[in-house]
From TrEMBL, chain A:
It comes from the Bacteria. This is NitT/TauT family transport system ATP-binding protein. CDD domains: ABC_NrtD_SsuB_transporters. Residues 16-255 form the ABC transporter domain.
TrEMBL record, chain B:
It is a multi-pass membrane protein. The chain crosses the membrane at residues 12-36, 61-83, 95-117, 123-145, 175-194, 214-240. Residues 57-237 form the ABC transmembrane type-1 domain. Its main location: membrane. Keywords: Cell membrane, Membrane, Transmembrane, Transmembrane helix, Transport. SUPFAM superfamilies: MetI-like. This is NitT/TauT family transport system permease protein. It is found in: Cell membrane.
Length: 276, 253
């Protein structure tokens, strides 16, 4: 397994580190191996994209990081301590925006503040003031402020996904986990949202793990791209995407950007053929 | 005419039409009012016996609403329990289906045996008849929370109670109100059946007495009263539903 150098200067201890983590579903003869022992370390503030054919265990890595499931083998460390030792603040967003239809966009965005400590204890006191301002600041940033009082279904898919990003970020998570967040959007909306996400990431220290099928998306957004093999998943290649920031859509048509994509594509196609 | 107005007009016309047809058919074929009284005779009976009907209607309304209220509380509690736990669902569902498949009329004699004739069996019958639709609907609403949404909540370290309170219950509300509309009309069935079998008060009882004295217009007047009560409650719950879960119908709240 090759772990290339990271873009940012390596901190003493990575924010999250997977140490030979494996996941097996079921047991006995019907056991399916979703993830073969995989190691991955992500320094604080990094942006890592996981790409690969479907069913390769990309989402499994996110679920492990979010403590939604436990590894069958291996260890996960967060800030040098075993994951679960202390609460990790996580923001998560999926392809479907999963906004709550009975709430306004603003209330949807504020939802994590109602759940996650220490905001949770201040909810009653600050929901009308500080928290509301906090939500509005994010909505302003993502161009949704005029829709703050609308219901989710009154917004387009792209706008719903913006609100989804706001919800995932409002509680200042240490770790932002994105599972194909733009997968259901059209090309233009998707590219717009890449810009929004890049902006949001650049102005805070959140560490991002992004699962995507879209290689252009991975290369546009991430500092590092991990290519995964078909099931049982493992990381085939972990390479830097060191284009200057802020990146623009025009850059994605330049030769060195295209070369990265071509290389990634080759790897995935090759691994798929190998699996057949 | 707007499509909405036209729809309302059409359904009103149909209702009026049915009564006009009924009235005319009785006149043309000379049907005796002992068999099928004309709507005008029924309305006449309603007015004539208004004083006598009122306490019975009040009694029926009272037993129905009391039974319904208990049914809603128990149904909601069971629905939340069954909907939020796989184990509770698997354990309790077969029993619930079994109980619900018993014709509720058949339990009236048992209630009478336990509590004597009168108000209590009517309340209990109304109650058990409306529990099941509420349980099933509330449980469905809670159990069908999108897995992604649950993951989002769990990633915030939300407790089961957090998820239930913030996602499960609000999400189940449209299902709950749909079941309330069904249940409130079913509750009438329960209380009237119980009154018919074993009570000396209530519209059901009044209809029994009227039919034994061949006062057929009064029997039908009883039916009209029941229909009016049922429709009113249905409308009330529809209005509450619109206000509370208008979001499910994608109306701006």
């Amino acid at each position: 397994m090759m772990l290339e150098k990271n873009l940012k200067p390596a901190t003493v201890e990575p924010l999250i580190r997977f140490d030979r983590v494996a996941v097996t579903y079921g047991g006995g003869a019907e056991a399916t191996e979703a993830l073969t022992p995989t190691s991955l370390s992500v320094p604080e503030g990094d942006f890592v994209a996981l790409v690969g054919p479907s069913g390769c265990g990309k989402s499994t890595i996110l679920k492990l990081a979010a403590e939604l499931m436990k590894p069958s083998a291996g260890d996960i460390y967060f800030g040098g301590r075993e994951l679960g030792a202390k609460p990790v603040r996580v923001g998560m967003a999926f392809q479907s925006s999963t906004l709550l239809p009975w709430m306004s966009i603003r209330d949807n965005v504020m939802l994590p503040l109602k759940i996650v400590p220490p905001f949770r204890g201040q909810w009653r006191r600050k929901r009308g003031g500080e928290f509301r301002d906090r939500a509005d600041a994010l909505l302003e940033k993502t161009g949704l402020i005029d829709f703050a009082d609308k219901q989710p279904w009154q917004l387009s898919g792209g706008m719903q996904q913006r609100a989804n990003l706001c919800r995932a970020l409002i509680h200042d998570p240490d770790l932002l986990l994105l599972d194909e967040p733009f997968g259901a959007l059209d090309q233009f909306t998707r590219e717009e949202l890449w810009g929004t996400l890049q902006e949001l990431w650049m102005e805070r220290t959140v560490t991002v793990l992004l699962v995507t099928h879209d290689l252009r998306e991975a290369a546009f957004l991430a500092n590092r791209i991990c290519v995964m093999s078909p099931r049982p998943g493992r990381i085939l290649e972990d390479r830097a995407a060191d284009f200057p920031r802020p990146r623009t859509i025009d850059m994605t048509f330049e030769p060195d950007f295209a070369a990265v994509i071509q290389r990634l594509r080759g790897l995935i196609v090759h691994s798929r053929e190998g699996a057949r | 005419m707007s499509p909405d107005l036209r729809r309302r007009f059409a359904s009103a016309a149909l209702i009026v039409g049915v009564f006009v047809f009924w009235e005319l058919a009785c006149l043309v074929f000379g049907i005796s009012s002992l068999i099928l009284p004309r709507p005008s005779e029924i309305v006449g009976a309603l007015i004539e016996y208004a004083h006598g009907i009122w306490p019975h209607a009040a009694q029926t309304l009272y037993t129905t609403l009391t039974g319904f209220a208990f049914g809603v509380m128990i149904g909601l509690a069971l629905g939340v329990l069954i909907g939020s736990s796989r184990l509770a669902y698997d354990t309790a569902y077969p029993l619930l289906v079994g109980i619900s498949s018993i014709p509720k009329v058949a339990v009236v004699p048992i209630f009478v045996l336990w509590f004597g004739a009168g108000t209590v069996p009517a309340i209990l019958t109304a109650m058990i008849i409306c529990i099941f639709p509420i349980v099933v609907n509330v449980a469905t609403g809670i159990a069908t929370v999108e897995p992604e949404l649950e993951d989002v909540m769990k990633s915030m370290k939300a407790t089961k109670l957090d998820i239930l309170w913030n996602v499960g219950l609000p999400r189940a509300m449209p299902y709950f109100f749909a079941s309330l509309k069904v249940s409130v009309t079913l509750a009438f069935v329960g209380s009237v059946v119980a009154e018919t079998v074993a009570s000396n008060r209530g519209v059901g009882n009044m209809m029994m007495i009227a039919s034994s004295s061949f006062n057929v217009p009064l029997v039908f007047a009883g039916l009209f009263v029941l229909a009016a009560l049922g429709v009113s409650l249905y409308v009330i719950f529809s209005l509450i539903e619109r206000r509370v879960v208008g979001w499910a119908m994608r109306k701006a709240i």
